[in-house]
Design a protein that fits this description.
Rossmann fold
Length: 153
């Protein structure tokens, strides 16, 4: 009896066209292997929307609530598109949303909690000083994850 290399794939999405490409590639792999997928998105925690240096720092609480609701709606829309693509491909998928100030940690924790054996995500392809200054969620996942990570460019 053969066992697929990857049986459960976590695909991290953020709503960008690059993450949609990662969804496409992750679903192709899942289909070929007969794996199921978790479509995962991390949004910023509500408490951090008022932090100094954040775009909503000093904003009244109702404005921060609206911002959080908007971010959550955007995340759910991206997840719905990914789940629809999975259904069209005949791949079993579920969506998972978490709030976190550290998306790379949230991705790794979700993969562990869901017993995923592969993480698929996009890279924005930043290089040089820009990559050093801005950092990269993908780079942090690669650095800290014990699971294999497939990076789609």
């Amino acid at each position: 009896m053969e066992v697929a290399i990857y049986q459960h794939i976590l695909i991290a999405v953020d709503g960008s066209s690059l993450s949609e490409h990662a969804v496409t590639e992750g679903l192709k792999l899942a289909k070929a292997l007969g794996a199921r997928v978790t479509i995962f998105t991390a949004t910023e925690q509500f408490s951090s929307l008022g932090d100094v240096g954040h775009a909503f720092a000093g904003a009244p609480e109702p404005v921060r609530h609206q911002a959080r609701d908007y971010l959550e709606a955007q995340a759910r829309t991206a997840q719905a598109r990914a789940c629809a693509a999975a259904a069209a491909a005949g791949v079993k998928a579920e969506a998972l949303l978490a709030e976190s100030d550290h998306p790379h940690q949230a991705i790794i924790e979700a993969a562990k909690a869901k017993a995923a054996d592969l993480i698929v995500m996009a890279s924005h392809g930043r290089r040089g000083v820009t990559a050093v200054l801005l950092g990269s969620v993908t780079h942090k996942v690669l650095t800290h994850s014990e699971l294999p990570v497939l990076v789609c460019r």
